[in-house]
Structures are given as structure tokens and as C-alpha cells.
Design goal:
By secondary structure, the chain is α/β, with parallel strands linked by helices. The protein contains 9 helices and 14 strands. Helix 2 (40-50) packs antiparallel against helix 8. The structure holds S-adenosylmethionine (SAM).
């Protein structure tokens, strides 16, 4: 039997969602925080995106993880507590749990509570000696880990290029906060150095239409949870590649002028006006190491695929 531990949920409530949505849609340009993409439907869609041939980050990172796992296991030693930020479907963690010597605890931290619980339910039977601790929390804020968790050493894990969803300033703050949360530890972080614009447009603009569905679900979520009346047919998904800093932005663009209701407010769109629904910053490995070093993490090892389309960094803090 796997051991399980409960933890109090700390997901943003619907009033925080409403406040952020109203604030983001009544300013110019319009922005919605990407963390609201991750309800159960969004998480399911993202899992399908990970299998789309054009969405290169998942396959590249899985390849690097398979290369890195034994080295990470040797450096950290036995009976480790692994803490994953944004655990999603908890697939990549299997490579680490398989390589580590007698891993003690897996703390899986995610904003999508039901999806998190289901993922841990699927994972736990395959690792009966590992204490499974799902923690329902928003890692863009301070996170407290459950107290009294066993484990000789701590290994943080932040895969999936999620660090790129923060601006560089926010990423620095996240890294500093993760150092506080994890304490003395090793931290394995995925970062995407891709600059090939065709590859980026295929991955973020297409993925078999799944990317459009993933972003449009944010409007559907506001209709479902906040009583809004957005007409999804009036919006198309598009990507913009921007510089300084280099990043891919996801937008929902209004086809024609319209007004909608949200939380007692009127939200007005001109034709062609867009909402930025997510951003993915792309980090050159040296620049990312420098950012981590400024925020409490010394570089230990780097795995980079030959096409420089993904990087896995191991830090010590
Ligand atoms: C890109 S997916 C990565 C999933 C998985 N780690 C992987 O690499 O395949 C991002 C994950 O982070 C979670 N997430 C996004 N923003 C979050 C936040 N602010 N706090 C906690 N979890 C968040 C999402 O629910 C999702 O499961």
C-alpha cells in the first residue's frame, strides 16, 4: 500500500480569479494570468499537447531526463524527498523515482487540485514505498511544505519549461522563494533555449489545434465559473514572437468589436484587440545560470540537447 498524506488546499478562490480577470480585461493591453489556464479541462488539453509531434519541449526534456537521472541520483544519495512544482500528470517524475535510491517522499505541488489528486492516484500504486503528498497550491506565491515530512535530502524538480511563464524578474523571485521553501537542496529545472521561430510557431501556434482549444478554454472557464458571457467563436488564437526579452506570447484576438459581461462589469473589445493569455520566455543556458546564481542557486550540471532546443539545469542551494 502506498502511504498518503493530506494537505490543506491553497488554490486561488473564485473571488481572486474574478478580481484578476476584471483587472486584466479592463486594462490596455488586456492580459489574463496564465495560471488560470489550468483547470481540469486545461490540464487534460495540455496533456494531449505533450503528445503532439510539433510540441517539442516534452520529448526533448524526457530525453534529457533519462540521460541525467542516474547522475542526479548519485549526487543526492538515498532516501530523498522530491518536491515537484507544477506536477501536472506526474509522468516525468517516474524517471526520477526509478533512478533514485529508495526515494522516501514525493511532494507534488499543483494549482489544479482535482487533476493533481487523480494523477497521484494513478502514480501511487507503482511506488508503494514512497509517501505521496499532493499539495494543492499556487507556486507564484510563498508555499509552505507540509511539516514533519521524512527524507534525508531534498531534491526540487521544476520541469515543463514552466519557469519561462514568469517574466525574468518573476522567475528570479520564484527561484529565491523556492530556495527558501526547499532549504538546502539540489534543484533540477527545465528551461527552453529555442530561438528557431518556425519551430516555435509550430509548437505554440498549432499542435494540431490543441493550443487554440487550450487558450479558448480560459474564456469558457470564465463563463462556467464567473458567470461571464464570452462568445468563443468571436476569438481566434495566435502567437507573437517578441524580443527583449525573447519570448513567445499567446493571444486570443477578437474577430469583431463586442461587449461582454463579467462580474457586473462590461468588457469591451475593438475588432482585432487581443488578450494575452500566456508568455513563454526562452532562456539561453548561460543567462539562466546567471539568473539562478543571483537567486541562491549555484550551477552543478547542465544537460543540453544537440539542437539546443531544451536544457536541464541542476543547481545546488
Ligand atoms: C506546463 S505544465 C507541466 C506539467 C509537468 N510538470 C510536465 O512537465 O509535464 C505546468 C503545470 O504547472 C501547473 N501550474 C501552473 N501554474 C501554477 C501555479 N501558479 N502554481 C502551481 N501550479 C501551477 C499546471 O497546473 C500544470 O500542471
Amino acid at each position: 500500500m502506498s502511504k498518503a498524506a493530506a494537505c490543506a488546499p491553497a488554490e486561488p478562490g473564485s473571488s481572486e480569479f474574478l478580481d484578476d480577470a476584471v483587472a486584466g480585461l479592463t486594462r490596455s493591453p488586456k492580459i489574463l494570468p496564465g495560471k488560470y489556464l489550468w483547470d481540469e479541462t486545461g490540464s487534460d488539453l495540455f496533456d494531449q499537447i505533450c503528445h503532439a509531434p510539433d510540441y517539442y519541449p516534452t520529448g526533448r526534456e524526457m530525453g534529457l531526463l533519462a540521460e541525467a537521472a542516474a547522475d542526479v541520483a548519485r549526487r543526492i544519495g538515498p532516501e530523498v524527498k522530491v518536491v515537484e512544482f507544477g506536477s501536472g500528470a506526474s509522468r516525468k517524475i517516474r524517471t526520477l523515482l526509478d533512478a533514485l535510491e529508495r526515494p522516501a517522499v514525493y511532494v507534488a505541488l499543483d494549482i489544479a487540485g482535482d487533476y493533481l489528486d487523480a494523477a497521484i492516484h494513478r502514480l501511487a500504486p507503482d511506488y508503494p514505498s514512497v509517501v505521496m503528498m499532493p499539495v494543492h497550491a499556487d507556486y507564484s506565491k510563498a508555499v509552505e511544505l507540509p511539516a514533519g515530512v521524512p527524507g534525508r535530502a531534498v531534491l526540487g524538480f521544476f520541469p515543463g519549461t514552466s519557469i519561462g511563464n514568469f517574466s525574468p524578474e518573476e522567475a528570479g523571485a520564484f527561484l529565491a522563494e523556492a530556495r527558501r521553501t526547499l532549504g538546502p537542496s539540489l534543484f533540477l529545472v527545465g528551461a527552453d533555449p529555442t530561438r528557431d521561430e518556425d519551430r516555435l510557431r509550430r509548437a505554440y501556434g498549432g499542435a494540431d489545434g490543441l493550443m487554440a482549444a487550450f487558450h479558448l478554454n480560459l474564456l469558457a472557464r470564465m463563463n462556467r465559473e464567473l458567470g461571464a458571457d464570452f462568445d468563443l467563436g468571436n476569438f481566434r488564437h495566435g502567437v507573437r514572437i517578441c524580443n527583449e526579452p525573447f519570448r513567445v506570447e499567446a493571444h486570443l484576438v477578437a474577430r469583431r468589436a463586442a461587449t461582454y459581461r463579467l462580474g457586473g462589469r462590461t468588457i469591451t473589445f475593438e475588432a482585432g484587440e487581443s488578450i494575452r493569455t500566456d508568455t513563454s520566455h526562452k532562456y539561453d543556458p548561460d543567462a539562466f545560470r546567471a539568473l539562478a546564481a543571483q537567486n541562491g542557486w549555484s550551477p552543478v550540471a547542465l544537460w543540453l540537447d544537440p539542437e539546443r532546443s531544451f536544457s536541464l539545469h541542476l543547481f545546488q542551494g
